[in-house]
Specification:
single chain, three-stranded parallel beta sheet, six-stranded parallel beta sheet, binds NADPH dihydro-nicotinamide-adenine-dinucleotide phosphate, 41% helix, alpha/beta
Length: 295
């Protein structure tokens, strides 16, 4: 079997067009949706992610401001910045690029973001809403995974989904959202972690396999059920001196080998990554609409 490629770039481009139409409609009413991004330190990956998000916002007409902060910033200094963005009328969505330097308490920063401006959906209140099936914002990567499956027509009802990785930003919110859904339309969920003794036995039972661990090509063909749909969230930089930039990007799934077993698979790059950016735009516009309705 050779798997169908689920092309995140194409699906994300469709979503960006829809968002651009929504932005144009808001602008026609005199409202300019705005996103503020905060990035602390000079981690190259974080800088690249934020630059991509800024470009995507510009392309759909969302106002953006990027706050590039030195890594020596104090926790109070960062909290003050978030508070000022919470108050700013031009800003409807706020994202704080993670990870933060070790001297900053990530929880305190996430909790400081006004929940109705929480475009990343990481605030405990928004995670709580997700957990009771009443979500305001779904974190962008989980939202992207779910939306790409929906738009690809992957039927989840009655299926078994295995999620490898249980981080707060990827694995847990996907599992949480699927657990809340109507079983007619949502899968039974198993979540795996680092010390799972029989990982392959569990992954082999998955109709839908979502992998978000951050280990290059850790999921091999032998770990995948024939015909499974495989979503690879991982982004890993591997040294490759044959390339000008000196590295290549691979996922957590051995793409070539698993493509021979799965029925559908996302590539890395070009799979979940573009969806994450598209759903951040979607969340920003939703935030703007909600704030205007409340005003
Ligand atoms: P974290 O490091 O926060 O979490 C990794 C999770 O994987 C943990 O739950 C950990 O288990 C689990 N894990 C680690 N090793 C194994 C293993 N050998 N077997 C099974 N489970 C394991 O990572 P993130 O969730 O933030 O990111 C995961 C990957 O996804 C990264 O490559 C990241 O770059 C990428 N990513 C991609 C995004 C995109 O837009 N495409 C967005 C966000 C992340 P335990 O809890 O037991 O420690």
């Amino acid at each position: 079997m050779t798997a169908r490629i689920i092309d995140g770039r194409i699906i994300a481009a469709d979503i960006r067009k829809e968002v651009a139409r929504d932005v144009a409609a808001l602008k026609a009413k005199g409202i300019m949706p705005g996103l503020a991004a905060v990035v602390v330190g000079d981690d190259p990956a974080s800088q690249t992610y934020v630059a991509n998000k800024e470009r995507a916002c510009r392309e759909v007409g969302i106002y953006t401001e990027i706050h590039r902060i030195d890594s020596s910033v104090s926790q109070d200094g960062l909290l003050d910045l978030i508070e000022s963005l919470n108050r700013a009328n031009r800003v409807h969505g706020i994202l704080v690029q993670l990870p933060l330097p070790p001297h900053i308490e990530e929880h305190a920063i996430i909790e400081c973001v006004r929940p109705d401006k929480d475009a990343d959906g990481f605030h405990p209140l928004n995670i709580g809403h997700l957990a009771i099936g009443d979500s305001q914002f779904v974190p962008a990567t989980p939202f992207g995974v779910m939306e790409m499956l929906r738009r690809e027509g992957v039927h989840l009802g009655g299926k078994h989904a295995v999620i490898v990785g249980r981080s707060n930003i990827v694995g847990k919110p996907i599992a949480t959202a699927w657990m809340q859904g109507d079983p007619q339309f949502f899968p039974r969920v198993t979540v795996c972690h680092r010390t799972d003794p029989n990982l392959a036995e569990v992954t082999k039972q998955a109709d839908i396999l979502v992998v978000a661990v951050g280990i290059p090509e850790v999921i091999t063909a032998e770990m995948v059920k024939p015909g499974a749909v495989v979503i690879d969230v991982g982004i890993n930089h591997i040294e490759d001196k044959s390339l000008k930039r000196g590295y290549k990007i691979v996922g957590d799934v051995d793409f070539d080998a698993v493509s021979e077993v799965a029925s559908a698979i996302t590539p890395v790059p070009g799979g979940v990554g573009p969806m994450t950016v598209a759903m951040l735009l979607r969340n920003t516009v939703s935030a703007a609409k909600a704030q205007i309705e409340q005003a």
